[in-house]
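Can anyone check this?
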Amino acid sequence: MSALLLAVIYLAFVSLGLPDSLLGSAWPTMQTVFDVPSSYAGYVSMTIAFMTIISSLVGPRLIQRFETRWIVICSIALTVVGLLGFSCASRYWMLFLFAVPYGLGAGSVDASLNHYVANHYSSRVMNFLHCFYGLGAVISPNIMALALQRAHWNQGYRWTACIQAGILLICLLSLPLWNVGKGGAAEETAGEEPAGIRDALGVPGVVPTLVAFFAYCSGEATCFLWTASYFAGTKPGMAPERIAACGGLIFGGLMLGRLIAGFVSNRLGDRRLIRIGLAVELVGIALVCVPTARPGVAMAGFLIAGTGMGPIYPSIQHMAPEHFGRRMSAPVIGLQMASAYLGSTFMPMVFGVLQQRVGIWIMPLYLVVFAGLNLALLEAAYRAIAANRGR
């Protein structure tokens, strides 16, 4: 039963990844259909991420009051509504309307499942879990590429919504499995006064970890949204369906990086995984910078950069109970999710304005800045945690 429950949790993370890569893959075509500037993708992405921030911040309270299984089911249902709404959009403004359920569906399920796995499973399981997120995020750009080749971009959203609805049905059928562990967090902290967000912010090392998470997700989300546009703007002559498929390179790298990390994480540890990942990410970004009109080198660069990014997100979250204690893990992970989506909200939009004024070629330099910030702030967090323990 425990193995079946873990399989359902993995499937729920596939559903979490499915919606994330669609907008970036479809935007070069959607921009033409809606007759808006390329930077306008950032405003839609910002709206989705802003709603996810809200659901992440209420996540710790939901975790304390409800069982994880109900949070998962309600969240997936919201994303189905959002995807269907996008598929029906005939005007640019309609995207903002359906961005609300689209974004709300992501934050709470992300925080609740990460909290559940961080407290119950090893770093290996956490990396494999996020690998399945990458699987979902790789599938959807290819769905969109198929839709652009054989139908229309709307169908890409509609087909993804059908897959998401199938996952929702499986989660509904799996409800009895959660009775084994009760899925919620109330049992985990029985007898303890629940920690709040204000309590978590006062713990040494939490604030630099949050800013590091902001930096990481700023770079990651910029890749999510703008990779396809980078190829459209710097590699002339590529077919639209091939450009859309390139939007999945970063997700393929994330999946590969987390798959590799799953096999070595228990031996290397979270901190070493993060340092290795950042080094690999920088190698990938350097390849993207190679000046050539042929897309192969840049494609390899984005794939390698995504591979390096792979273990960073799950490793930071898996360290939360160890670094800050089980009592603090729910609010800390909720804050991490909010910081992550804050970066996802604003920084792709900032890049959209920047690339419109300077050129899309500046994207690799933009990514290097956030990789450097991520490394520096995490090292500062480690020092603060060590100093607190040494008191």
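Reply from J.R.: I decoded it. The radius of gyration is 20 Å.
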